[in-house]
Structure formats: structure tokens, C-alpha cells
């Protein structure tokens, strides 16, 4: 560059080296978010936690230049975290390699003494979402069953005993549906292997966990390219 008369000093080279190492993380995360040929929503939370921890470290331990830049970036990042962290934390929970273990581990680093409260809020939202899927699935199944029964029972006298049984069966179905999420979370997580087919897991377990499988598919296929990650990580 013709504008430079002297070579950078040793301390300037050191600063450049730190900056390159710092920005490399954001480059890798942005590349991971840009994937379009595979479901990427389960990649979000580990990467975004990596960014949050990096920014906090530089704000606390970096030199003046790095602290200033990290603080500006963190200002934008907080809004990004508030908007997207919950749904993508749920996505990592629905990855059988991580389940609730990963949020539990990372929230301790992120929130410190408040991690128990934040985990409780996340769990409440997870179960609330699952309950909504349970109601939707139950409604569809009940409507179909009622339609078939009406067609089959035209001209037949209703049996009060069997009506009571139908009510009991519906109540049990709801109970079983609610237990799917609990069952999944209680089972051991799978080994953490690279390039694991998460959607394949839910396809294989659809008959065993029908409601949770539908919920997992809907969340895991959210393309992270729709999230404005580049603007969130901008230093400007």
C-alpha cells in the first residue's frame, strides 16, 4: 500500500493478529448460518453462544481497542440474542446429541447466578410450544376419528358406556402426548458426531413420538439464512 511509509511495529502486528483471530470466529459462524442445502437451525445455538462468550471475554479482558470494538458489537448482538435465542435454543434441545444438556451447560457461563431462572423460562416455553402441538394434533386426530365413526354408525343407537370410554381414551391420549417430550428429555443423549442426520432421527422415531417429531421437523428446517446475522455481527 503506497500510503504506508513504515512497516507496522511489533505491537501493531500483535494487534492485527488478535483482530484476525477475533474476526475468524465471526466468519466461521456466518458461513455456518449461510448453509442452504441442509437444515441449519440446530447449528444456531452453539455458534451464537460461541459469539456471545467471545464478545464478553474481549469486553472484560481485551485491550482498549478490542474492548471498544467488542462493546459496539455486543450492543447489536443483545437485540439479536433477544429475538432469536429462544426458538434456536429449542432447536438444539431437539437435536438428540445435545437435548437440555447444552443449554444447561452454556447458560451457566452466560447468565451466572441467574442461569436457573433463564433455564426455567426456556423450559416453560418449550413445554408450552409442545402443548400447542399436542392440541393441534389431537384436534386433527379427533376430527378424523369422529368423521369416520359418524359414517360407520349411521342408524345405530349410541352406547353411553362407549361414549364414556371415548372420553377416557381422549384423556389418556392427551396424557400420552404430553409425556412424549418428557420421555425424549429423559432418554440418554446420543454421541456427538459430526454431520449427524437430525431429521433422519425424527423420521425414525415418528411412530414413537408423533407429536414431538412434527414439532422438531417444523423447527429444524428453519433456514438460518433468513436471520440477519451479518448485520448483527457488524462492527459499524
TrEMBL record:
<dbReference type="InterPro" id="IPR012337">
    <property type="entry name" value="RNaseH-like_sf"/>
</dbReference>
<dbReference type="Pfam" id="PF14372">
    <property type="entry name" value="hAT-like_RNase-H"/>
</dbReference>
<feature type="domain" description="HAT C-terminal dimerisation">
    <location>
        <begin position="180"/>
        <end position="235"/>
    </location>
</feature>
<dbReference type="GO" id="GO:0046983">
    <property type="term" value="F:protein dimerization activity"/>
</dbReference>
<feature type="domain" description="hAT-like transposase RNase-H fold">
    <location>
        <begin position="34"/>
        <end position="133"/>
    </location>
</feature>
<dbReference type="GO" id="GO:0003677">
    <property type="term" value="F:DNA binding"/>
</dbReference>
<dbReference type="InterPro" id="IPR008906">
    <property type="entry name" value="HATC_C_dom"/>
</dbReference>
<dbReference type="Pfam" id="PF05699">
    <property type="entry name" value="Dimer_Tnp_hAT"/>
</dbReference>
<dbReference type="InterPro" id="IPR025525">
    <property type="entry name" value="hAT-like_transposase_RNase-H"/>
</dbReference>
<protein>
    <recommendedName>
        <fullName>HAT C-terminal dimerisation domain-containing protein</fullName>
    </recommendedName>
</protein>
Amino acid at each position: 500500500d503506497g500510503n504506508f511509509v513504515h512497516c507496522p511495529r511489533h505491537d501493531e502486528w500483535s494487534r492485527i493478529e488478535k483482530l484476525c483471530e477475533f474476526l475468524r470466529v465471526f466468519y466461521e459462524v456466518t458461513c455456518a448460518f449461510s448453509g442452504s442445502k441442509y437444515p441449519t437451525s440446530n447449528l444456531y445455538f452453539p455458534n451464537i453462544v460461541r459469539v456471545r462468550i467471545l464478545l464478553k471475554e474481549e469486553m472484560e479482558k481485551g485491550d482498549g481497542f478490542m474492548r471498544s470494538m467488542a462493546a459496539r458489537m455486543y450492543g447489536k448482538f443483545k437485540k439479536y440474542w433477544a429475538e432469536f435465542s429462544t426458538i434456536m435454543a429449542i432447536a438444539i434441545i431437539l437435536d438428540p446429541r445435545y437435548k437440555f444438556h447444552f443449554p444447561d451447560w452454556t447458560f451457566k457461563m452466560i447468565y451466572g447466578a441467574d442461569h436457573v431462572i433463564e433455564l426455567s423460562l426456556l423450559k416453560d416455553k418449550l413445554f408450552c410450544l409442545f402443548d400447542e402441538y399436542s392440541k393441534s394434533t389431537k384436534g386433527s386426530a379427533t376430527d378424523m376419528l369422529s368423521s369416520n365413526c359418524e359414517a360407520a354408525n349411521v342408524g345405530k343407537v349410541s352406547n353411553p358406556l362407549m361414549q364414556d370410554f371415548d372420553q377416557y381414551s381422549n384423556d389418556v391420549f392427551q396424557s400420552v402426548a404430553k409425556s412424549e417430550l418428557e420421555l425424549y428429555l429423559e432418554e440418554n443423549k446420543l454421541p456427538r458426531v459430526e454431520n449427524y442426520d437430525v431429521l433422519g432421527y425424527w423420521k425414525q422415531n415418528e411412530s414413537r413420538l408423533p407429536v414431538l417429531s412434527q414439532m422438531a421437523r417444523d423447527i429444524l428446517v428453519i433456514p438460518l439464512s433468513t436471520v440477519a446475522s451479518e448485520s448483527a455481527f457488524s462492527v459499524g
